[in-house]
Amino acid sequence: MDKPMLVFKRFGHQVHxxxxxxxxxxxxxxxxxxxxxxxxxxxxxxxxxxxxxIKDIEQELNITKSVASNLVKRMVxxxxxxxxxSPSDKRAKFVRLTEKSRSQMKQIKSFFDRIDxxxxxxxxxxxxxxFEEVLExxxxxxxxxxxxxxxxx
Length: 153
Hints:
Radius of gyration: 17 Å
Structural class: mainly alpha
Keywords: DNA-binding, Transcription, Transcription regulation
CATH superfamily of the domain at 31-121: Winged helix-like DNA-binding domain superfamily/Winged helix DNA-binding domain
Largest sheet: 2 strands, antiparallel
Order of helices and strands: HHHHEEHHH
Pfam families: MarR_2
Helix content: 55-70%
Number of strands: 2
Protein name: MarR family winged helix-turn-helix transcriptional regulator
Strand content: 5-15%
Domain HTH marR-type: 1-140
């Protein structure tokens, strides 16, 4: 087996390219990148009735404040999200899905469900549980070494 870091990097890159290609094929190319990640995150948080600030997006995507601000600005321009000032802190902005992006959620969820099913094809529940357990251990090791979101703080 190749070095684990090389294997993870290759796999992550392959999945990223596959998602972008499939999203483009389905006519939802914006879903293949960070805008899609933000939309899925916002949808998840809205379902559990949790407000989202730009800083929440920074943490979820592990990106800097300026990258998150530019990403959200682009999404506002694309009509995918809207901003609302916090009543308690005018500097803080809540990020919400627009009706346009909400109307696309069924297609988007279907897209990611199909991707998930394809990725897990031929993988038993038992093997998946072991894989998740190993990933959790690796994540804990990364955090122990000092790889927990330090560059975004």
